[in-house]
Sequence to fold (1166 residues):
Amino acid sequence: MDGWSEVLRIPSNVFATDNFNNPTTIANITSLQFDSVQNFIWCGDSKGYTRSFTGSFATNSLYGNLQLYPYTKFHTSDVNSNNPIKQILSHREGILSLSGNAISFNSRRGLTKVQVTSKTFDNNADKFDNLQAMTFNCNSFNDVVVGTDTSMMKFDLNKPNVLSSFDHQQGISLLNNSGKFLTIANSNGSLDIFDPISNTTVKTFSAHNGFISNLDVRGNYIATCGYSIKPKRYHHHQPAEYMVDPLVNIYDTRIMRAIAPVPFPAGASSVRFHPKLPNIIIIASPTGQMQFVDIFDQTNVYLYQADLSIPTNTTTNTNTKPKMSNLEISENGDFLVFNDSCDNMHLWSISPSSKDFVNFPQSIEQPDIIDSNIEIIDIDANVPLSIVGMPYYKELLLSNYPNDLRFVKETAKLPEPIDIELILENETQNGRKRFFPYDKLKYGPGNIYKPYQSLKENEQNNEISIPKFISERTTTTTTTSEVDHDKYIDDSIFQYKSSGKSNKVPNCYSRLQIQYSKFGIKDFDFSYYNKTKECCGLENHTDNSYINSLLQLYRFQSSIYNRVVGSLSQEWLPNDVTTIATNPEGSSILNELGYLFDMMFKAQSNNVKIYNLSQVLNHHPNAEKLLNNNELLNLNSQQVRDLVIEFNNFLLTNLHEDFQRQFDENFNLTELKYEIEIKGNGTSCPMYDKHQGSMFSLELITPPSNMLNKMSILINNPPHYQSNNNNSDNNSLGNIRRNLNILTYLEYSMNQFKTIPCQQHNHSYPHNLEIRTSIVHLPSVLTINVNLSNPEFKIINTFTQWLVPEFYAMKSKSGNGYSFKEIDSIPSPSLMTQESGKYKYELLGYVCEINHQADIVNGGHNLVAFVKVNNDSWYLFNDFLVMPIPEEEVFDLQPSWKKPIVIMYQRQTDQPQFNYLTTPSVFGNNYDDSILYRDHFAEGIRKGHQLEYKLLTQQESPIPGSLVAIDAEFVMLKPEELEIHYDGYKKLIKPKQLSLARISVLRENGIPFIDDYIVHTSKIYDYLTNFSGIEQDDLNLTLSKRENLVTLQTAYRKLWLLLNLGVIFVGHGLYNDFRTINLQVPEKQIRDTAVIYYKSDFKRQLSLKFLAYVMLKEKVQKGNHDSIEDANTALLLYKKYQNLYNKEDFESILNYIYSEGQQLRFKVPE
Fold:
């Protein structure tokens, strides 16, 4: 230990505080500590600040002297106080600073990670005060042990709100730790060896008579130094005086005894073990004398004297006695640091050529460099890149490559994508990487060669052709159904298989977008996306459009379809004030679903909106968490599954409640009945209970680990294992492969068994309660929610065929629970009958989540449905894309991007034929149409109201072919969403959202029998008064002067009844009206004067106002629009057309209309 000398002294003026009013205020040094990770010396002061210094050799010195430079300084005591920093601990992630009432955990840059005060804890908060010392718990760097003047506690840096107390009630002055024990210096001078695991004090030593001033631990040895009370001779009541002890006590924790102390005549106030030579201790006295002593050979002593003299040129009080304190030694044993009474920091070293305080220091993070503001030049399609300019350069630019050099990126191989889940699973809480074994059960076999796929091939696969707008095509046909699509686009959107062996999602599962031209939604070719003649698609530019796929699944279940649509035969039209306040549409989930199902049938291959159902859903008090108006762009994969399954449960529950509320009936088509049996398995436990319940869908549960182990056998032993080993084990593996499918999951989910400790009788003898949950009744329609985790879905991906097309459900002999068998595994299926308690179920379809991106990415997922239509063919429903799909594609769940969410099986013998509303005469006899013959105003009939219409009588009841004129007015709830480019080009993203405000229907003679204003409680963006004639407050139930206010369902039911009674609607621009009302009217029941008076050569439809001027010689719509006037005008125009058509003069008159329009610019002269 020869060769120690002082290498650096930092004067006290470095520690001046940032006090502008008193710049000479000095912050006294209260604690010092060497960093254990980086080259830092940490210093705490009396003002509550912690600062750091880093060492470096001076660049301008001829001898390379070591210099300390300030690195950081930050406040670490409580925000409302400036308590001194009593102790500093070095942690691998930062620095811990202890003050009187707080512990602050900061990064080495000074950013606060955790600050712990009494307000932080939920319990024992009153004890967290007067903090004296701290240390890390044995072998743990996250558990911090804190000592106060009355107790000892600990908390976890990762969970700092929980404070645990130790069984130690004495005042604590110092703390340290060894491998097994905590060493506690009590305020009375005793030393405790404490076991934190058993929470007991193992041994107590009387170390010093007064108090312990310093304590250090190295391996199994403990060294203490301290003070003793000076004996009193004459004055017994004089205050206690302390004198420094001339001995350093040494203790061995292996034998729990004190060994020979080390004498130090100068009086020891500090003691430290050497980090590399544990038999060497460094002892220091208050006067600056230091000794390096071998505790096993105390004759081997090295003596040094520190210069603590006060410089003559300082302003320090000359009465201050020199004193040495806060002795610390670096981790590598090359440096000592301490301070004197003048707050000068002294640095000693045994190796002047070294600047490292630790053996392998980490690099120090440098301050962030803020980039200077760089002028940004706006570059777009109209600005050439040449205006940017080039800097001066001496070497050749990359663009100056030889002519014969070719960059063939198309033949480059695609890099293998990294599974983000693997990266996240590899992340620890502190952000570091860790090693973990590869799990074949989750991720499949590793190190498998994958076929070559070029970048060019991938780019071709990504290209999806979008059909042209109808207006952009060169064709003489008048209907979109007659257009030959092959002339304009290919069929790449209907690709359902990935090219090659790539895992790319095929095009037919893509997220679809509706495109809008200047002619609106009618110009978009929906027919291109529908490859069927009887199945409609659902639009996705509507709130809550994520339910489209689920609605398609339920629409093709005949029992549910018949019950839901059949419920419309009875009238349920609430119109009281309370209902309108919470349900302004005056409808229910059941009613709107019935209307929607009927419209989906009538639409055939046309597209349908779910707007009316979505509006009822938006206002439903229990559906707040189910709303989504941005097409799932804000959700990740798991959140999408949670949302769909939650809506499925909500839908089935509300259908049941609506049937009970409206018709006092039960909706039990999907109802499963279960039984829970609880009994004690002890010999004398009297606990026994049994009760029944029901639910409308089954939550699928993954089987336990013993079944998963069988699955892992298949994954770890590929098929070639069976072909190369012909033994008896092969048959068992094959059986496992056949049996592990959804039936294994169903049988486990329907028959649950678990045990829990009996709390009621556990005092007499310990025993368990057996809880058995069994499904005792299966419905005719079995709805299964598959809300599994991503690792569980990856297990499903490994099975050859997880879904089964058909299976038998057999009731157990005990009557509790069911077992399931595949059709192929039953020798004589004909013997399986319902009378024997055996039911045959077939797969109707399922809702599937498609993952275009990693599961954790928001917005990279959409939903589709696979449905078996008419027990014949499988179809894919992806919003408005409808196409037939091969059966093998339906049952192929091996792609990782394919996840079934809601699966529906139906009992084969219980499913009736669809009762479609196709015959008006049958409809009129079975459905209540009384609303057509009476008023049903919101809030009841108002006294003294004046009718502008005459109600129908029973003698005028509509029959198929009856002519009625119709016109509707609308208000705007939301404006259109536009994308505006710098050059003024506008692209419509979403159209404006309109809502029905007024509907008028006239008899064939022009007398109105319906004129209803629709109640609105939500905010209206624009009343469109110039076009609708609706004034502000006209639709407000309390402020409106209109007498004929009705709910939306009342008006809609009237139109729906007229539609099913087979009337013919006459109007102008009925396509947009019926589309907004969400009414699917067959073409044979529409007489649209906008279409009748249209000449395709001009590609311009004529306005009602202009046609009335030319054909009827009348000026209409002089002020605001009036729907009765508009409907009557359209009726007169249609009758005029019939007259001209019968005379065969219509074509010439139509040419005259367009020629007249060109002269008048298709405007009515003022």
User: Anything to note?
Assistant: The domain at 5-17+28-310+320-349 is CATH 2.130.10.10 (Methylamine Dehydrogenase; Chain H). Residues 475-488, 714-738 have pLDDT under 50 and may be disordered. The first strand starts at residue 5 and ends at 10. The radius of gyration is 43 Å.
